[in-house]
Amino acid sequence: MLGTKLPICEQDAKLGALCKDCSLRLQNGQISDLDITISRIFSSVEDKFNLEEASFTKAIDMDTFIIIATDGNVGQLVGKKGRLVKYLSEKLGKLVRIVEVNEDINKAILDLMGQVSVVGINKVYKKEGHIEYAVMIAKDKNNKWLAPKEKMEDAIAQITGQSIKINLIGD
Questions:
Q1: pTM over 0.90
Q2: First-to-last CA distance in the chain?
């Protein structure tokens, strides 16, 4: 029995074909082909990597690497000594970054930003009634951006479900 929480149903992860519900979710953009591929990889190695309590919610291809979001224990998706994340990188042909996403939006943003000097994260209440998170980044030549600013904004928004604006500050 598959204990891993995946974006697709257990049957689809095991069999390789999508049921009507998962097909509809794919057509509606609720899940992606990458979500399906990674779900099937997790399903195939569940016993080998002890993924009984693991959770995978969303994957985003950032061109040079792949973000895998979890609402559970990051350590389970990294694996002992990083073995699972290395295995995923080999199977997917790109580096993989595992990020925990839960009710702590600030932590998720910091995790996704990597080695960039985040000065602050503010919650901005817009006139239209929605909330936007403003992420202040120090203009620093030592920042190691994982992807262009606009691509990071989009990825953070997809994973957290929140509107994000990255602002560069300072000289």
A1: no
A2: 55
Residue 120, classed as helix, strand or coil, is strand
CA distance 75 to 98: 9
166 close to 148: Cβ distance less than 8 angstroms: no
Q: How far is CA 133 from the centre of its chain?
A: 18
Tell me the angle at which helices 20-27 and 33-45 cross, rounded to the nearest 10 degrees. Answer: 140
pLDDT digits (tens, 9 = 90+) for 5-24: 899 998 999 888 999 999 99
Q: Are residues 58 and 39 in the same domain?
A: yes
Q: Which domain holds residue 121?
A: 105-169
pLDDT > 70? residue 40? yes
pLDDT in tens, 48-95: 888 878 889 999 999 999 999 998 788 888 888 889 999 999 999 999
Q: In the predicted model, what is the mean pLDDT of the chain?
A: 89
Do residue 114 and residue 71 come from a single domain?
A: no
Q: What percent of the chain lies above the pLDDT cut of 90?
A: 53
Residue 145's CATH number: 3.30.300.20
In three-state secondary structure terms, 82 is helix
DSSP state of 59: E
Could you tell me the two tokens for 49?
């990597």
| Alpha carbon of residue 28 to chain centroid | 19
